[in-house]
């Protein structure tokens, strides 16, 4: 196999394309400089897809040679070589092109007249840098059609090298956008083992960190045979990665598609690569080809019917750059010939002989618009918007594969970047019924948050439920959100719901029950008061100072009525009145009981010789206890209101899902001072009544007073711990119930027995009965 393909022309373009790999044994034999190299090489593995570079090269030269305006009366020829990323093989190929002879003697050329002007080389940075070192010795321009590499852009090291690709960091963003579109955050990375691969590796890993994508593994792959050897132990990647995609630049070459559908090896009989490719695809050769015993292909055979796993009709980004590179040379040559004519040297313009170094000033400033309408420039240009096509490798029956365009990506700044994917066109592997996942940990649903696992990547985490009072309303939340005080989380902890405002309302069963009890007791007290007023002249009413009985009944009536201040929606007025009214009316009631108890004691003492007790009893001195106690409590309440009065408050924490409206006591010290005085008064009254319980009073009232104060004190002693342990409207209900229960104790124990005698046993309500009852005790 001859290592080169030559086509004559007025000007020659050297081109190096990676078309096959050599067997290691053959490479060692042919690349040794200690012996004469053989001229035949053996291909170990063909890179059939890369032959599209050659076809784009052919098409560009054909268009230029047929264009009467670009290079009139001149033609472009070429010398085509295989490119292999090996220092020895690169040197061999470069020397062969320079000398034009198989002897490859440095600085010797068998060509009488040099027609070579530029070299197109380099899908990889390794090969471009290797051949540039040799070409720089002769100042021969080199145009690379591989991805942009910043190291090759160093004009001090590579002054004769021009990159057709522009600096473009958008590929990283395109790949990141693709991963995020499908939610793949746990991925592996394969990069070429060169400077370009390392730059891309660093760039994409930095972007992955920013966007929350984690790296499962990373491998560097060589571009030579070792690349495929290294792939074997990780061949699971292809089956594990469900979407076989490629992302390319979206350059379009008008007319190339038609060219590819009509071209065949008979058009380029010297191109043995073309024959090998055609035979590999179709097991035949076209009419007119040097085929020997090979079968002749039918007339309709073309690249349109190439095997599905090799799509020759979809233009790759490197093919597009090859096409532009040939045109860049043609435009530079056009300007050179035009300048010679303008300078008055038409005979020089007619001579096609050009020294390669003469093209450098022109190539540096070359810019044009190609047939696709795209702007092409070889000098440093501002970054332009990049467009990428996204292809899915679709499997067809009989093992055929074809790349189907499923979307595109357009670069921009910030949010201007856009990714469009037509998911209905994606063919997932048979094992997947829906879009596959690639995550280290499953997503945390709403109502939970991610908790990183120590020592692992950020994509590996556990899901924990949001704490009490917090929510998360999105998937994979980093933190939960605290609900405002006026709201509370729903059961799933995904939304904050408005809390219900609650209080001890009349409409509630509890409030209604307490209100009915208070109303019944109020009416009952009124009835008792009416009975006492009606029978005020009877002995049982007149006994023990009926004025105190009226005052006690009125105070109990007010006690039952004040319970209504505790029921209903709290407001400023009710908050100010409820505790103050409660304290004052109960002070009035308890002090009236105390006065009645003292009256009993004085009445007993007045029966004994001596006038002091009788004067106190007659003067109504026991009644003075009531205003004194009332004024003391009134003073305490006044201090309370003056310093820190009660106010309307809201409790948003005690009861889940509710905001409790309540009355804040303001000064807790003042509140307990008021209760303390009332408690002390009640305890003192109970003590006096207990000591006087066996005195022979009228209708035995001392025992009733003692028992009533026992009930009163028991109720309020029980009230304190229960009141402190409850919250919300239950706490208010406890206080209302205690008010009613203590009032019932006083009303029932003191007045029910007397009403019983007045209404049921009227015969006992007489002076005669009274005398019989107390008579024996005086003996």
Account of the protein in words:
Helix content is 44%, strand content 16%. Among the domains are: 4-168 and 252-265 and 315-377, Response regulator (Rossmann fold, 3-Layer(aba) Sandwich); 266-301, no CATH class; 448-498, no CATH class; 509-698 and 765-778, Up-down Bundle (Rhopdopsin 7-helix transmembrane proteins), CATH 1.20.1070. The strands form nine sheets. The protein has a six-stranded mixed β-sheet with strand order 1-5-2-6-7-8, with helices on both faces. A four-stranded antiparallel β-sheet has the order 11-14-15-16, covered by helices on one side. It has a three-stranded mixed β-sheet with strand order 23-25-24. With 779 residues, it is of the alpha/beta class. The model is unreliable at 26-41, 224-238 and 775-779 (pLDDT under 50). The radius of gyration is 53 Å and the shape is rod-shaped. Helix 20 runs antiparallel to helix 21 (701-725). The longest helix is centred in the C-terminal third of the chain and has 35 residues, at 572-606. The protein has 23 helices and 25 strands.
């Amino acid at each position: 196999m001859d290592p080169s393909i030559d086509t004559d022309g007025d000007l020659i373009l050297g081109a190096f394309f990676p078309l096959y790999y050599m067997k290691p044994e053959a490479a060692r034999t042919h690349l040794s400089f200690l012996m004469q190299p053989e001229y035949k090489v053996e291909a170990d593995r063909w890179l059939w897809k890369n032959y599209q570079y050659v076809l784009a090269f052919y098409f560009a030269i054909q268009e230029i040679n047929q264009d009467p305006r670009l290079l009139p009366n001149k033609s472009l020829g070429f010398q085509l070589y295989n490119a292999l990323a090996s220092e020895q093989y690169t040197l061999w190929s470069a020397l062969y092109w320079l000398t034009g002879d198989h002897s490859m003697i440095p600085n010797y050329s068998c060509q009488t007249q040099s027609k070579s002007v530029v070299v197109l080389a380099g899908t990889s940075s390794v090969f471009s840098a290797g051949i540039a070192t040799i070409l720089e010795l002769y100042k021969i321009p080199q145009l690379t059609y591989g991805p942009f590499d910043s190291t090759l852009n160093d004009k001090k090291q590579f002054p004769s090298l021009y990159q057709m690709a522009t600096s473009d960091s958008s590929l990283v963003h395109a790949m990141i956008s693709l991963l995020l579109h499908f939610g793949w955050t746990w991925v592996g990375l394969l990069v070429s083992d060169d400077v370009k691969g390392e730059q891309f590796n660093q760039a994409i890993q930095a972007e992955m960190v920013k966007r929350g994508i984690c790296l499962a593994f990373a491998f560097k792959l060589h571009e030579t045979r070792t690349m495929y050897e290294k792939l074997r132990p990780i061949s699971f990647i292809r089956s594990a990665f469900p979407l076989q995609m490629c992302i390319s630049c979206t350059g379009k070459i008008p007319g190339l598609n038609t060219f590819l559908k009509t071209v065949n090896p008979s058009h380029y009989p010297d191109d043995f690569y073309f024959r090998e490719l055609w035979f590999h695809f179709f097991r035949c050769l076209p009419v007119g080809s040097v085929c020997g015993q090979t079968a002749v292909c039918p007339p309709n055979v073309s690249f349109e019917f190439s095997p599905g796993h090799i799509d020759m009709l979809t233009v790759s980004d490197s093919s597009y750059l090859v096409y532009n590179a040939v045109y860049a040379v043609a435009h530079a040559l056009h300007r050179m010939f035009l300048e010679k004519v303008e300078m008055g040297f038409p005979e020089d313009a007619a001579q096609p002989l050009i020294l390669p170094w003469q093209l450098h000033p022109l190539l540096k400033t070359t810019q044009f618009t190609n047939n696709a309408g795209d702007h092409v420039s070889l000098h440093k240009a501002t970054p332009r918007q990049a467009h990428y096509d996204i292809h899915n490798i679709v499997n067809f029956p009989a093992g055929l594969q074809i790349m189907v365009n499923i979307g595109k990506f357009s670069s921009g700044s910030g949010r201007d970047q856009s990714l469009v994917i037509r998911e209905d066109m994606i063919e997932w592997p048979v094992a997947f019924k829906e879009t596959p996942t690639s995550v280290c940990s499953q997503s945390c649903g709403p109502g939970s948050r991610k908790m990183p696992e120590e020592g692992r990547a950020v994509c590996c985490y556990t899901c924990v439920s949001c704490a009490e009072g917090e929510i998360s309303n999105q998937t994979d939340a980093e933190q939960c959100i605290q609900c405002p005080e006026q709201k509370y989380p729903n059961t799933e902890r995904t939304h904050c719901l408005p809390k219900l405002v609650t209080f001890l309302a009349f409409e509630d069963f509890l409030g209604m029950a307490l209100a009915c009890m208070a109303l019944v007791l109020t009416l009952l007290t009124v009835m008792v008061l009416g009975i006492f007023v009606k029978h005020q002249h009877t002995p049982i009413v007149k006994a023990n100072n009926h004025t105190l009985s009226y005052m006690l009944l009125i105070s109990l009536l007010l006690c039952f009525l004040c319970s209504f201040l505790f029921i209903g929606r709290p407001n400023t007025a009710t908050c100010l009145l409820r505790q103050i009214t409660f304290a004052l009316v109960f002070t009035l009631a308890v002090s009236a009981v105390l006065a009645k108890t003292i009256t009993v004691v004085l009445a007993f003492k007045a029966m004994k010789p001596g006038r002091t007790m009788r004067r106190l009893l007659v003067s109504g001195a026991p009644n003075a206890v009531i205003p004194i106690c009332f004024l003391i409590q009134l003073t305490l309440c006044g201090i309370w209101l003056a310093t820190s009065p009660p106010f309307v408050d809201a409790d948003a924490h005690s009861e889940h899902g509710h905001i409790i409206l309540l009355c804040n006591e303001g000064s807790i010290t003042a509140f307990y001072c008021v209760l303390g005085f009332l408690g002390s008064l009640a305890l003192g009254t109970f003590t006096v009544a207990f000591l006087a319980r066996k005195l022979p009073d009228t209708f035995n009232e001392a025992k009733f007073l003692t028992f009533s104060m026992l009930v009163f004190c028991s109720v309020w002693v029980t009230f304190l711990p229960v009141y402190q342990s409850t919250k919300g409207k239950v706490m208010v209900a406890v206080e209302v119930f205690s008010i009613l229960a203590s009032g019932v104790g006083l009303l029932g124990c003191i007045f029910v027995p007397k009403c019983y005698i007045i209404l049921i046993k009227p015969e006992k309500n007489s002076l005669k009965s009274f005398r019989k009852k107390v008579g024996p005790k005086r003996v």
